[in-house]
Amino acid sequence: MIGADSVTVRAGGRALLADVSLTLNPGEVLAVVGPNGAGKSTLLRALAGDLAVAAGQVRVEGRALRDWRPIDLARRRAVVSQHVALGFPMRAAEVIALGRLPWHATAQMARDEAAVTLAMEQAGVAHLAERAYATLSGGERQRVQVARALAQLDGAAAPAALLLDEPTASLDAGHRGQLLRLLRRLARQGTAVLAVLHDLNEADFVADRVAMLIDGRLAACGGVAEALDPTLLQRAYGLPFRMVAGGGLLPDFAAGGR
Amino acid sequence: MSLALATASPRARGRVAMLPLGAALLAAAMLAGVLLGPAPVTMGGLTATVLDVLGIAPLPAEYVRDAAVLGVIRAPRVLMAALVGAGLGAAGAAMQGLFRNPLADPGLIGVSGGAALAAVTAIVLGSSIFGAAAGVMGLWLLPVAAFVGGLLATLMMARLGTVQGVAGVATLLLAGVAVNALAGALTGVMIFMADDRQVRDITFWTLGSLAGSRWAHLPVVAVLVGLPTLALCALARPFNALLLGEAEAFHLGVRVESVKRLALTLAAVAVAAGVAFTGLIGFVGLVVPHLVRLGFGADHRLVLPGAALLGGTLLVLADLLARSLAAPAELPVGVVTALLGAPFFLWLLRRRGMGA
């Protein structure tokens, strides 16, 4: 669906991403993990087409990203950024309805209202519809943005891609579970889901595959067990992790060596 | 996305009624504008004049004076005010949307500063450069100079504000500040060179006036202000996407850099063409979009046409006040818009809070 071929992204002479290759397939959840500054958000933005790549290329359905018209991209991939601040006050329902913009003047326009209603239900924000976006908490805003992205992908002809940058960052445990289960459900329905995640246990729960970035390089990309290998984790975070009973990873904060 | 309007909100229906309401307001203001003033015209006089112009019934003798007042003075003036006000309102809404800044106004993109510099230069140097021809060209020299000056300043600002093909909002804003400062400094040089009569002309030009409205100007204004205003209204959907930010707008399928260039060009043409014939008129472009937003929300499908309609309405009324308050003398209309606009804006801010 979306692939990176030896992608390098530079800013100010520094390589934020170096030679990263990976593929996001329909029907899977790919979690991108790694320490702060490893290039997780940069990778997401490169895949979304926000950044110019210095070397390599990003492909969508086999075609180079820069050959796509923005509107055609918008009809098959949605992006949920970490923070979205509005230019002027709007209600949550209006923000979510903006997700339908790419379908203006297409046959899918007939689905506008149904798509927004469904997206609000799926993201659990129906009760926030009439609230002013500016008065929502960080977690509520994140869920509204997820609903906006779901509304955008409603009606996509081919399998769609959903890219999320730390979607769980401001959510409480209950809503985190809700969102992760939603991502799994979307993947089961054929959507290609890529999520930048901080919490390795969330990655463990939700991901089919995990990509571990360290210093802008892809240190591992594969099954959960492979990418969340204790030696690799020690290298990435400078901390030993141990498995806890019943499945789960716990960082040993006291043992930090640096 | 017909549905931001259609979603269950009870306010939605009130919003749809907003555009006919704005059109009705503008029509009422224009009617008041042609009827009222130091020499009032009766409805009978207006009707008789319209019938005469349409060739339906000859003008009765008692209405000859009314017909003259309407045809020569009032009608071109009110039409000019409506068009220029609409252009300022829509351009203001577009710049606030583009810069995602509630304090943005059309002056920010250098257009008024550049127009002022060119107009002042034309006033001061016009007769020495064009000699006797300046008198003949009088009706057009100043407007053409101001129009070209305004566009050049915006072009310069856009060039300076674009780095590697990307016109970053902050860079653009700073480039606008720099271009305005430079234009202001050069305007100062011109004022220094001006004689007393020219200084007076310059002062009145910078305060704005619709007294010079002529039928001959109107077709030009109708095209150069009217068409960009309509075109800006057609950009409502990309502007709505930009409410979320530039990256999000791109994710929603908007060609962000193209939209930015187009919107800057349209706003610059609309404002430069208006300013060219009326001089600088402040506050309409800043206040009017806020009034629309405070009443009807941020949806640009309402904000852009609403700001055009309300901008026209307010400028027609401000001009009515400008020529009535101190009759037979006239206040500069820019003074009236500022006197009305500034306190009203403050009152709104205090009442509703910025919320942006």
Q: Which structural class do the helices and strands of chain A define?
A: alpha/beta
Radius of gyration of chain B: 21 Å
> At the third CATH level, what is the topology name of chain B?
ABC transporter involved in vitamin B12 uptake, BtuC
| Major sheet size, sense and barrel closure of chain B | 2 strands, antiparallel
The major beta sheet of chain A can be summarized as:
6 strands, mixed
* Oligomeric composition of the shown chains: heterodimer
Please report the first level of CATH classification, the CATH class of chain B: Mainly Alpha
- How are the strands of the largest sheet of chain A arranged? 6-7-8-3-9-10
Helical region count of chain A? Answer: 9
Shape of chain B: globular
What distance separates the N and C termini of chain A? 39 Å
Give the neighbour order of strands across the main sheet of chain B: 1-2
| Secondary-structure arrangement, i.e. CATH architecture of chain B | Orthogonal Bundle
The CATH H-level superfamily of chain B is: ABC transporter involved in vitamin B12 uptake, BtuC
What is the 3D form of chain A? globular
Mean pLDDT of chain A: 92
State the share of residues found in helices of chain B, binned by percent.
Answer: over 70%
Instruction: Indicate how many domains the architecture of chain B comprises.
Output: 1
How many strand segments of chain A? Answer: 12
Protein name (chain A): Heme ABC transporter ATP-binding protein
Keywords (chain A): ATP-binding, Nucleotide-binding, Translocase, Transport
Function (chain A): Part of the ABC transporter complex HmuTUV involved in hemin import. Responsible for energy coupling to the transport system.
InterPro entries (chain A): AAA+_ATPase, ABC_transporter-like_ATP-bd, ABC_transporter-like_CS, P-loop_NTPase
